[in-house]
Write a structure and sequence with these properties.
Three copies of one chain form a homotrimer.
Chain A lengths: L2 H7 L3 E3 L8 E2 L9 E4 L6 H6 L4 E5 L8 E5 L2 H12 L8 E2 L4 E2 L4 E2 L3 E3 L4 E2 L4 E2 L3 E3 L4 E2 L4 E2 L4 E2 L4 E2 L4 E2 L4 E2 L4 E4 L4 E2 L6 E2 L5 E4 L4 E2 L4 E3 L5 E4 L4 E2 L4 E2 L4 E2 L4 E2 L4 E2 L4 E2 L4 E2 L4 E2 L4 E2 L4 E2 L4 E2 L8 E4 L2 E3 H12 L1 H17 L10
Parallel strand pairs in A: 2-3, 3-4, 4-5, 6-9, 7-10, 8-11, 9-12, 10-13, 11-14, 12-15, 13-16, 14-17, 15-18, 16-19, 17-22, 18-23, 19-24, 22-25, 23-26, 24-27, 25-28, 26-29, 27-30, 28-31, 29-32, 30-33, 31-34, 32-35, 33-36, 35-37
Antiparallel strand pairs in A: 1-5, 20-21, 37-38
């Protein structure tokens, strides 16, 4: 494809020779002539200065570079699109593999690709365009929308409801029993987890992430939410539309995450909280209380991030502060009565 | 069922009209006429005040509510029981699915439900009443008690021993090799993990949790312990009877957790520790040393929780404290020799 | 085996009766006559003093013990070797199980053991000596070296490249899509993850660990690296040769870990960092910035560990420090103008 055509398809401003032929997308380091590369993170600016790529997708206001540039207000979007243009993903063959065990009353709309040893339970409904890889288990009563993708080893428990264009990576478990027990003197008694999980449209869930079914009602993953790998969403939680949970995040039961929330890796939230729309939680933070919309919080326990940074900075000076107080105490004690002397 | 009968079955004190017919259990928000709801957490008291439920299970000392109440000293237990009364879980059909691969010398007591593509290895023994969902793999030499439940995708490695009424959720891996290597100048040499895992009666283990086999001897999960999702139990650990490990907890190798211990989500314990009976560990804490029985610990490194809370509170005032010390230094310096002045 | 012969095989110095017959390896607590035990961690020295073992493998400089000792500079290595001598692991039968679905053009060198329901995709190449347990899914285009072991439920996504003697435990997912999305006003657009994962020789990866495929290029796990359970390696990361990542460690995207790095359990590193050769990261730490080679870092945010320990120690005295400052303020205020008084 000629660079000029590519620029048009990506809705980018082209600076450079539009007749250059481009054939692949590569990283700044690995790119050579005929390749398009990508620069959005300033950390990699020095690689851009020496890249052998024929062209680079850059932010609209990027400085001059030694090769052609494709400029755009949203370089990540242009990058996503150019990868889609040049990368042809492997597609499993259409049809139902002869080893798949599909219940007689399951309804799978065509076209569909159902892999080897997939197990589809009684009464399951799956919309058109599904790609179900080997060893996926769909328990009875599950309802799934159009263009569903489930990678090898996914488990969807009974009565879970899934919207359109949902992607589940390998090892995802949707609808395992929530962690609920009634303590008694003879040991804990299991509280039946009678609800389900509802996953709305355009949700993507990363490898080995678990979303537990509700005790009553539904654990909700709202439209457009993206969950990374090894995330835990407890029973009766709600993850708001277009929220992002990075890897290893944990949400205890009944916590409600608003719309457009971003939680960094390994962050956790206690149960029964409300985390407002647009909240950002710094990686590894612990959120013990509800957070109003729009806040950026960090630390443990999580607080307004500017405050937490100030405290973290002060903390670095704490050993020195101890010495300064000791020195003050000596100075003051030299001129005061013994009663005033602080201990050490 | 009439409310009076329900109260009797649940051993609750009924306040209200015992002739009301109840048909389902729903949350306070979703309940309508004919529904029983549940209130134990005071956070939801306002929902109870406006619920349309016909009756609510409440603690014995709850205030008056606008509907009938079922009062009990253990509302969680009554809630567990009422869910069991009204919820009929889906049960897979009895018998061994024709696609299951069961070793000729495996012994599976009847009745049993073995799902599609389950793989049961040589010499495995499974007690009566097992429900093994599709794609479960039981390696050779495993011994399992009565009323076993393993959800789709569970893996039980060779020679693991499992008691009665154990529930394993999808993705659980019991008996993977412990993380043991001998460092050498040529790289790490694997230390064979020759022990196993022993899971006693009435244990429930959450989705994608891993319990590693011992180097020698057994990694122990004692009677009645409950592990949530994505927990890691290292080789040669022991989790005491009736202990609770919340999601994403991690135990490094050879740590012994006592009876009735509770660890909050994402908490971790170092290796070779002893955590005494009844200890409570706050979520996200890090436990670097052994903890005597009965303590409540939190923070990182974990300490007595009251002390940790005091320190956390003091931490919030640290930036202000720095300013106060600076001010003191100036005040004192104004009346003292230059040598006494603290730096800033 | 006679103790003298065992000492020779393990290249240990024998102190004691070389004619003793030994038949098994057991822990210090469980060992009896005829057993070899092992002592490296001083925590267990008291158990060594009372063990009934016939011999103990100990460090070269260990004190006298009440039984024979096998002394070596690397007791962990001798322990690994003695376990290998006395423990015969269960081996699945050779050959391809009739239920395995192997693509017509997949090439699997002999000997190989391919378990029930394994699925091997188009064009896959696997070197001699593979042991692939039941329910493993190898997507198309994967290339694997010699002596590969994959436990039940492993998933290797398309085009992943794996070296020789690699061990993958159950539930490992190699090559799931990295977590990359371009934000737009209409919601996040997926950035195709077009790269792969390359795992070099002698790597072992623990149960339910996930290593995501690169956006472009490869996520690299270098020679001899060992990853414990439930670890998350983000897209485009590189884990250096002979590095150790303990359980539940998380690496955000594009972070490069040097050679011989050790990260403790539940530690995390932000994205786009460089962590130098030989760095040690304390358990549960959070690494927000790059770390030069050779450093030992801890805390959150992670810093030089000696500094962090000093700060942690000072932190314990913070409530007391607040009181001392208050006392100082009162003392000084008693002799100064009201303007100087610090607030409380």
């Amino acid at each position: 494809m000629k660079l000029a055509e590519l620029a048009e398809r990506l809705r980018c401003e082209l600076r450079g020779d539009g007749t250059i032929e481009v054939r692949a997308v590569r990283s700044l380091e690995e790119a050579g002539p005929g390749d398009v590369a990508f620069l959005a993170n300033p950390r990699y600016a020095s690689q851009a200065a020496t890249t052998k790529a024929s062209a680079i997708i850059v932010p609209a206001d990027a400085g001059d570079l030694p090769c052609a540039t494709l400029r755009t207000a949203n370089p990540y979007l242009a990058f996503a699109e150019v990868l889609g243009l040049f990368h042809v993903p492997r597609q499993p063959p259409p049809g139902i593999h002869p080893t798949a065990v599909v219940a007689a009353d399951a309804r799978i709309a065509e076209p569909a690709s159902i892999g080897a040893y997939a197990v589809i339970g009684d009464g399951v409904e799956i919309g058109a365009g599904a790609t179900i890889h080997p060893h996926v288990t769909i328990y009875p009563g599950v309802r799934i929308g159009r263009s569903f993708t489930a990678h090898a080893g996914v488990v969807v428990r009974e009565d879970v409801v899934i919207g359109d264009r949902v992607v589940l990576h390998s090892g995802v478990v949707l609808g395992a029993d929530g962690f609920g027990f009634a303590p008694t003197p003879q040991g804990a008694v299991k509280i039946p987890q009678t609800g389900n999980v509802v996953v709305e449209d355009d949700v993507e869930i990363g490898a080995n992430t678990t979303v537990d079914r509700a005790t009553l009602g539904a654990t909700m993953i709202r439209r457009g939410a993206k969950l990374d790998n090894l995330v835990m969403v407890g029973h009766n939680c709600e993850v708001g539309a277009h929220s992002f949970l990075a890897a290893q995040v944990g949400l205890a039961g009944s916590t409600k995450i608003g719309r457009g929330v971003q939680m960094g890796g390994q962050a956790g939230a206690a149960g029964h909280l409300t985390i407002g729309d647009g909240v950002q939680v710094v990686a590894q933070s612990g959120v013990p209380n509800s957070v109003p919309a729009g806040r950026i919080v960090g630390g443990y326990p999580a607080m307004e991030v500017t405050r937490w940074r100030r405290i973290s900075a002060a903390l670095l000076r704490l050993p020195e502060l101890l010495q300064r107080v000791r020195r003050l105490e000596r100075t003051v004690a030299g001129r005061s009565t013994p009663d005033d002397r602080g201990g050490d």
